[in-house]
Amino acid sequence: MKSNWIVTFILLSTLLLFTACSEGNGESSAAESNTSNKDSNDNSVSEDNANDSPLELEFWYGNGGDVGELIVAQVEKFNESQDNIYVNAIFQDNYNTIAEKLQATVVGGNLPDIVQLNSRNWHTFGESDVLLDLTTVIENDNDFQIDDFDNGLIKDTLLNGGQYGLPFNRSTPILYYNKDLLDQLGYDSENPLENWVDVEEISKAIVDSSDEERFGFTALLDAWYFYSLAWSNGGELVNEGGEIVFDSPESAAGLQFWADMAEAGLMLPPTASGSNSGQLLAEHFYDEKVGILMTTTGALTFIEMNTDFELGTAILPKFDKHAAPTGGGNLSIVSRIDEERQDAAWEFLKFMTDTEQVIEFSTATGYIPYRESAFQSEEMQKFYGETPNALTGYKQMAYVHSSPSGYANIEVEIANAMERTFVDDITALEALQEAANTMRSRIQ
């Protein structure tokens, strides 16, 4: 039986914090944890500023807080850079809301022109021709240098050979840890977390060193993180034949490792992915009630601002090998708009992903600089010199895997299985087998 305190903590947290067990929240909530709640109008470009003459486009974006404010600032910069196009940026709460509303407008009309879609669930819209294939557009634009973009992230926006978007705010999960605490415990704080056994060992030392309640490690129960656990241990999510295989013993072992750590009091029992759950875990880290936090690179700047101790970062630990997913958002153009609007939307995409904007976005947030020209720039190199923790996510790009595409609800089912592993009297393997069977029944 699971310890009662674990079940109570998760159930209470779920009741208070759970708003949507959905993909994407784990990678954005911590990054937005240090800003006040904002009405959607606060992060929208006012239509009152638009002139009558420019062609007006509608852009849906899903990042709130400081990240949302930066997106709006860059949209305003685009509007001020020329007189022919005016982009109205409309905040849509999160990636899932964008996907839901986009699906509704496909049926009912009033489509946006440009959308920021989660990098792992845009494929359905590409397959149904809702998004514009940019292949020909790119080939005909001699000024656009797609070779300057990170090759792995460009491949991540391909579908059946077509280019259905461009990377925008791209991230990967990493470890954040309290270097001062590890120094006090006698560990090498420069490179302490190579594998998951290291995380377990150091977590035990953290717990044993305090008379007050303190945990070694915490992370959200997000499918994004499960991917790394499975891949690192030799598991897969979907095999080459397209079959669901995330319920293999290899895939389940990492999740069970987490559950065993929580049972032993080493891991702070995580909540399901909700709009505030990442903020809650980040605050425990800031308050030194947790020594190691797993979350997105997109949270780096905000975590740096809120920690009073020396902060360390590390690429994700391994079981057999290092393996990591990528996340964040891409920018895509809706195909069901006229050619004039498509051309204008392309000019906006080029601006938002040019070297100058990538440098500004990456240095302000910690998101990955996905253009080589941005990474090599004097500004980025200065930023890395002053903020060496920012290099961790970039280094981890050598170990990223592509997430499965075309499988609706796979991340929701995996997240549900993760939660059941912690709450119910069930093993990780059993929970994942039930989730996989649910997915298989939908595919048949």
* Envelope shape: globular
Percent of residues in helices: 40-55%
What portion of residues belong to β-strands? Answer: 5-15%
The unreliable regions are 3-25, 28-51
Number of domains: 2
CATH topology of the largest domain: D-Maltodextrin-Binding Protein, domain 2
Give the number of helices: 20
Tally of DSSP β-strands: 11
What is the CATH superfamily of the largest domain?
Periplasmic binding protein-like II
Which CATH architecture of the largest domain would you pick?
3-Layer(aba) Sandwich
What structural class do the secondary elements suggest? Answer: alpha/beta
Distance between the termini: 35 Å
Strand order of the largest sheet: 2-1-3-11-6
Protein name: ABC transporter substrate-binding protein
Region (Disordered): 27-50
Signal peptide: 1-22
InterPro entries: Bact_solute-bd_prot1, SBP
